[in-house]
Design brief:
The protein is α+β, with helices and mostly antiparallel strands. About 55% of the residues lie in helices and about 10% in strands. It contains twelve helices and six strands. It has a four-stranded antiparallel sheet, with helices on both faces.
Length: about 325
Amino acid sequence: MKNKKIILGLAALLVVASLTTGCGQKAELKNGSEVAVKIDGAKITADEYYNEIKDKNVSALIDMIDHELFDKKYGNTDEEKTTIKDQIETLKKQYGNDEKTYKAVLQQYFGVQTEDELEEILKLEYRRTEAVYDYIESHIKDKEIEKYYEKEVYGEVKASHILITPSVSENATSDEKETAEEEAEKLAKKIIKKLQNGEKFEDLAKEYSSDKSNSEKGGDLGYFDLSEMVKEFSDAVKNLEIDEYTTKPVKSQFGYHIIIKTGEKEKPKLKEVKKDIIETLRNQKLDEDEALYYQTLIDIREEKNITWKDDKIKKQYNKLMEQLLESAKTEEQ
């Protein structure tokens, strides 16, 4: 997934406790009474520092855990470097390459002062996402793959279309746009009647189609993969027989289409498209359930048998995870 999710507001703060296996109710420091800071004779011990940050910054501990889990397997790849570079360039462009505004955004939304710190956040999110992908894909069942293959995989299709685009200016009123839509649909229906009366598709495309890139060729689009077209167009084409045309105008963002299927190749073997199917199913699952990303990370951590040495930190972790899941579900609604 090239569009990596970013958890905002995770600060890269120092945590002086490390996770170890074993039993116990409170994490132990090597020397809890060791002085962390001295101020004019007063002192702050490592224990005091630890107790303060564990209440307020469990997210930093989660970052440390995930670095341990994901850095070795997913880190420092060429794809990671390219993805992060693209993300940063996109972010800069959003603010017109204004350096002052850009730095303010880094501080306000990402909690960092420099681009290097931002890169570290993006690296971790990239690696988390790769781990989520692998986990979800590994749990996709063969039956799901086979079902998708049978119902959704087609060979390349050849088709022609006549496109009727509503004629309206950019400054048109809502009423004018609505009128233009009605007129375009009416014309599309009129063309379908002409087809039903025996007129040739090619001739009508030359006369009426707004798509000048192929109208002179009778609307011929050649062979194409259904995924290359907008959904409304693809859904209409795959339900047609060879030399059958749509008897109702097909509305898309481009206008109204009249489509005729003129050819179809044999669909590829399952083994040839299995990887693509798995990626598609994974993306569908993530799109359908906004909380799945966070739930998957929770599941991965649980499978690694993490032992919490401090009950209070465990409660803070569970609370944060519940908040992330609830927030994702709210956004979905």
